[in-house]
Amino acid sequence: MTSATLVTDRPALKRRAAQDGRRLLTRVSGLGLGVAMLWFSLLVLIPLTAVVVTASTGGWSQFWQAITNEQTIAAIRLTVGTALLVTIVNVVMGTLIAWVLVRDRFFGKRALEVLIDLPFALPTIVAGLVLLSLYGHNSPLGVDIANTRAAVFLAFLFVTLPFVVRTVQPVLAELDKEVEEAAMSLGASRFTVFRRIILPALTPAIAAGAALSFARGVSEYGSLVLLSGNLPMRTEVTSVRILSSIENDNLDSAAAVATILLAISFAVIVILDVIQRRVVRRG
Amino acid sequence: MAKRPGRYALRLVVVGYLFLLVAWPVYLVGKNAFADGMENINGILEDPDIVHALVLTVQVAIIAVIINTVFGVGISMLLVRYQFPGKRLLSALLDMPLSVSPIVVGLALVLVYGGRTGWFGPALEGIGFQVIFSTPGIVMATVFVALPLVIREVVPVLEEIGDEQEQAARSLGANAVQTFRRITLPAIKWGVIYGVVLSLARSLGEFGAVKVVSGNVLGETRTATLVVEEKYLNFDKGGAYATAFLLALVAVAAIIIVSVIRPKEDR
To answer: What's the number of domains chain A is made of?
Structure first.
């Protein structure tokens, strides 16, 4: 360790650390951080960097060519468009579900809680099979959306269900009801109370949930395999497009398209971080 | 009261939405799995290749959960209790695996650890360690996708309990290991368990990333989720539904366990 250089500014750092109740790294915890960072780099950082580096080795023109391929553009447009649409539905339905779970009491509410987490725990390939059994060829409802764009929409809707609900629910539970009652007693209508008092308090949580649900939708793969038929130009999403490039041993082009997806997930991470800094609470 | 009808309408919309989107479809998978009695389930349990896939899936998931728990608890302690440069960036990057497409995860691992053209792959294969198309690759892909789950559960709990008790223990002469084992671990126990259960469910069910790195060799690197796809595409729908049912059963069990232990933490 370069103790000589560290010693000089250590008292100042120590004071600052003590102020917010946090310790400086000791030798053991520093070693722990080093090991953790090495593992995190080998597993996540270096591989993700490799994607971007591979995408850029062929130069800008090759990258541009890979992502402006007609079929790729159709896939990206379908993925992003459907994810946006699903996010809008989730913002409305997710807030509504969170509202009912927090403010309403009825028999079987616990069962609903389990249903909401299920899409998160269910393997994506099983999620596809699950949706296929109700909305596929032998549907008891008589609808067959297999191999259509509606199937992509439905799959995204299923896998992104928990995000808005689970981010809004705790915030809603902690809202002070007295403020609402005060507004009501001063003559505000129920709609005004919702718009002026409840909605502003929920907005950061809704935004965080929406960002997560958009990112999850854009990156979805497993639930679509059996459900959407992966028809080029029609129901093929970006992940499927990348996989077919990998299977054709065209890793450069796969990396180029993957870079677009990474840029989207990175943007979402940044947005989430900004929201979280405002709300302070992590989660 | 006047708001009664509105309340019932909302309740009805929510219950109807969840019934059509989740409950009914999941129920149908169970029903289809047992359409011919126990035949489908027995069919997959008697096929040695399928049993191999199930065993491999469980082994990989357990290894992945152990790695993610040790890493997750350790990094959570560092993030909450210590001050170091780049902490906020690290905290943001740790969430990254949740929003990266599983196919991109697979691609990223292939680009670095691929046997022929990867950055480290040829060197590792030179010393006889194959990652891609082999079990280590499957484990890495699984660890990657489930990485943030333990951290996301443990960090809020650590923040909430504060470190007064830890400091007290230390001032009374406990060393770091004793403090962690006697004070910190009991306090964050439920957060850890919750994270472990979620990671286990996620690890057993990983599909896309494993599909890219495993090579999907029957009886060797094929996992349970890959069996579901393979069976379905080969028109063995009974087998596909039966395997899917087993996976769904684990997922449902995980969620129920979590919902039973969670309220103890919250209230």
So the answer is: 2
Q: State the CB neighbour count (10 A cutoff) for residue B233.
A: 11
Q: What is the CATH number of the domain that holds A123?
A: 1.10.3720.10
- Does residue A66 share a domain with residue A36? no
pLDDT at A15: 52
The Cα–Cα gap between A209 and A218 comes to: 14
Q: Does residue A188 fall inside a structural domain?
A: yes
From A11-20, B81-90, B160-169, B226-235, the region with the lowest mean pLDDT: A11-20
Q: Which ipTM value was assigned to this complex? A: 0.86
Q: In terms of residue numbers, what domain contains A191?
A: 58-279
Q: Which residues contact B72 (CB under 8 A, 6 or more apart)?
A: B147, B149, B150, B151, B154, B195
Q: d(Cα A97, Cα B17) in Å, to the nearest integer?
A: 9
Q: For residue A16, what pLDDT is reported?
A: 52
Sort out which chain A residues have CB atoms less than 8 A from B103's CB and list them: 221, 239-240, 242-243, 246, 258
Question: Mean of the pLDDT values across residues B119-136?
Answer: 87
With an 8 Å Cβ cutoff, are A51 and B108 in contact?
Answer: yes
Q: Are residues A230 and A122 in the same domain?
A: yes
CA atoms of B168 and A135, how far apart (whole Å): 59
Q: What is the pLDDT of residues A253-277, one digit of tens each?
A: 999 999 999 998 888 888 887 887 7
Residues of B in contact with A29 (CB under 8 A): 77-78, 82
Report the SS3 class of residue A283: coil
Is any Cβ of chain A less than 8 angstroms from the Cβ of B230?
no
A266: Cβ contacts below 8 Å, ≥ 6 apart: B96
* Residue B81: per-residue pLDDT: 87
User: Nearest Cβ partner of A115 from B23, B84, B159?
Assistant: B23
Write out residues 170-209 of B within 8 Å (CB-CB) of A. Answer: 176, 198, 201-202, 204-208
Residues of A in contact with B3 (CB under 8 A): 190
Q: How far apart are CA A222 and CA A227, in angstroms?
A: 9
Set of chain B residues whose Cβ sits within 8 Å of the Cβ of A268? 99
| In a domain? residue A175 | yes
